[in-house]
TrEMBL record:
It comes from Jeotgalicoccus coquinae. The keyword Transmembrane helix applies. The keyword S-adenosyl-L-methionine does not apply. This is ABC-2 family transporter protein. Keywords: Membrane, Transmembrane, Transmembrane helix. The chain crosses the membrane at residues 21-39, 51-75, 96-117, 123-144, 156-173, 205-226.
Amino acid sequence: MNIYKIQATIYRDIREFFTNYAVLTLLLMPPAMAALYGTTAQSAGEKMPDVMIFVVLGTTLSAITTNIPLMLYAEENEHGLLKLVTHTRQDLLNGLLGRSVLTLIITGAVVIISIFIMQGMHIFSFQLMTGFILAAIIFLNLGLWTGLYAKLQSTSTVYGVIVLFFLGMTPIIETLNLGESSIISGLAGLTPVYQLMAIYNNAGIMPYVILAVWLALTTFLVWMVVSKRTETL
């Protein structure tokens, strides 16, 4: 691990985060959704439903924690920039670590801003924070995995939309009244954001077990793609 190369990646990505319009759009999406939901609830004179807070949390994880590294790596792959700055496995790992640290910090900041807008800070507890950290790493791993595989930015858009709708915004299913026996509800109940809802509802140890399985699986996928990319350096 080279701390200077990690810092260089962070400084380079900070500039990219705030000058790339596509990235800025992703950064603004969760606060915009929070403002929309919050205004709607206030206009109706009702309390914000907890499920909508988790929709915003899931959107933040998928839009920022997954899609930003996915988009940046796909762009670098398409233009050959990643090969220019990566000559060894260590270079690749330093870049991954630097981008991951910045992405997680930005994710945390956007979550705090969005939840504050929705007046939903009451949902947080030590248990939920622990689950959220695990979920953030899982979504980050998905972004790194798909980003290193994606050769084109158009491909990254497809991957990003899949993660957003099938993993990030799954709590919306709660508003469809499908019933617990529904296959869709059953599958959604295995997704990371649903585990955060289960932790919030004091569902015991099982949500952590499911998150641990997701974490192990996504970490393995990142290890596989790093090994594959290393062969071509």
